[in-house]
Please model this.
Amino acid sequence: MKISELVDLFEKTAFNAKRLSIAAKIYEEMIKNNAFVFFTLAGAMIPAGMRNVISDMIKNDFIHCLVTTGANVVHEICESLGFKHISGVPEVDDVELSKKGISRIYDVFIEQKAFEGLEEFISGILKELNGTFGSYEFLQEVGKRINDKNSFLRVSYERGIPIFCPTLHDSIIGLHITIYSNIVIDYKRDISKLLDLCFQKKKFGIVIIGGGVPKNFTLQSMLLAEGFDYAIQITTDLPEWGGLSGATLDEAKSWCKLKPNAKYMTVYCDATIALPLIYAYLLDKLK
Model:
């Protein structure tokens, strides 16, 4: 059985299997109707092994604009420089890990030398740059200098896909920008560019992984436009706590971020499970 066949059958079940199937079909419709797809990526998705999924989705024209966190950018660059995340178990002595120069993200580990390599790479770029940049412009400069063909930063640069990072300052790269350069990351440029994208004469879709700042940064751009035609959200958070990552897509309609007749679905699932299944479904259905 193909994964796409399994996902199709999910629609005949219930709960989040059914939700996942409906979400996959909405994504398929987005692409078939030439919608411009904003993809927001929060959480430690690159350490969790999703980098090839993201870069391949860009290569296959399933993502037309990416909005992510500083942490995902940091770990993506580490991977592109040849430093690997190591799979393990969470039941460890974290103090002992610290002594050995190893950092932990639940059951994934990365060595300190990866961040030393990152610092050397980024500081070299920063010494070449002057002036003011939007985060998407700065990440184009980074992607231009990455040789790894599997890096989503490199793929996005080659294909002219903008990557916005509204939390770039909230990352190790933010520290490097402060220490090694006089460049300014101007988020006004990001917002202007994002608004330009939202005023294209197209249908619009949004795929939200996790929530957080990338979710709000992208959804709020539609406050001045007409709203999204399609929306998919994959989250493990719940709306009852009032946090953004659990906020429902119905709620987004009250802000006019989604059109009244928008097609939408929230999947309550770990994104490391749901996203590869949806991607495999799209690959088969949209060959």
Notes: The chain has 13 helices and eleven strands. The chain has a mean pLDDT of 97. Residues 14 and 20 are 10 Å apart (CA to CA).
